[in-house]
Protein: L-2,4-diaminobutyrate transaminase
Amino acid sequence: MTLHPTHNLSVEELDRQSVFHPFTALAQHNESGPRIMVSGSGVRLKDRAGREYIDALAGLWCVNIGYGRTEIAEAVDRQLRELPYYHSFASMGTEPAAHVADRLKRMLPGEMGRVFFGLSGSDANDTQVKLVWYYNNLLGRPRKKKIIARKRAYHGVTVAAASLTGLPVLHNAFDLPIDRILHTVTPHHYWNAEPGMSEEDFARHCAAELDALIEREGPDTVAAFIAEPVMGAGGVIVPPKGYFQEIQKVLKKHDVLMIADEVICGFGRLGRMFGCEVFGIEPDMVTVAKGITSGYVPLSASVVSEKMWQVLMEESRTLGVFGHGYTYTAHPVSCAAAMANLDILEGEKLADRAAETGAYMQTLLRETFEGQPAIGEVRGIGLIAAVELVADPAARTPFDPALKVAGRVAARALDNGLITRALPNGDSLAFSPPLVISRADVEACVERLAASIAGVRDELIRDGVR
Ligand code: PMP
Structure:
């Protein structure tokens, strides 16, 4: 075990004593300590003990181009030597920021107006919330401020973004959500549709629920609706057929803005560059992060349509400066990394590759798991998928949450050299590998997941659970 030069302690021990870990059971971590990763190449990671893993989650759904691409390191190195930092307040700017903003506008569907840079999906969604409020204040509609998200949505953890998120663990004990943020139904056909309801009928049902919520609240008080094209961290939920068409009819009727959170879906994961293209979403605002740099360095963006931009620009004349921005907004090093990353994504046609390998992965997952004991649903599109475990597939009875079935499968998978993730609510395991994954590695992931599920089932049977 390597010792830290100044302490007589291992890195694991230093971590255990000093790092406050996000989304971690704090007391448990204090006892068991961390797993420290040291290197990565393609879809593979190595930890300090020299164990190798296939990273079927691409870090946190973000390492789209895979690990170890030296083009990004070189672009970052060049920018650090040329100009490591300058800001974009008060009309200042840098070359990489101008290039990325222009490129994003050209890549995104619809007519986008301006790109506001941040550093995380969370801060970008907080910016969207503030922009929605600012916009309606400028338009003289001070009451039109409420934003509707969906239960089980994931939009981040900062105060407004965590409020948009529809997961209790982000609200409980944090005094969230804040007011003016509401949640409507999760478009999950498997769990939420009435028996026998078609996908199309369920989509209409979800839209009717949204319509009813807006009517109850008063359309003059509802400003925006935010949605991930495919809900990611809340369960990998692919919307039912026709969902966004039905939802957008309701939004148009009540003059409510559509915010597309493309933080996971953007940059190729669904087999097109953006999720909006897959589902025919016509957003007024788009949030991107993760895949814009493949996670190599932090960068996010809140993009507004040309139509919204015209209002923001013209109507704000009387207000003076736009009072929002971060020290690191449009950071030149992040933007240089983004340009190199987008060169790889576009040059190697990784969205097309995700469509092809994704189709293979979806088929293989369904062939392997559907109809097997304890498998409820296999779902996904492109290179994002989830396998949901249930106690009784015929009756659709979930496992007792106290059994932590998915968590146990994920832990076993780790021992089997596979990084997957147990998602909150229910017992789903997620796949969202780098877009460069090969068919052989998809097969290895599926085999390792199958072995891990079989291992946990054996344990449950042994314990008399089923
Ligand atoms: N939106 C979505 C759809 C996400 O998946 C995430 C992160 N998983 C976020 C926002 C928040 O991004 P970050 O963790 O970079 O703040």
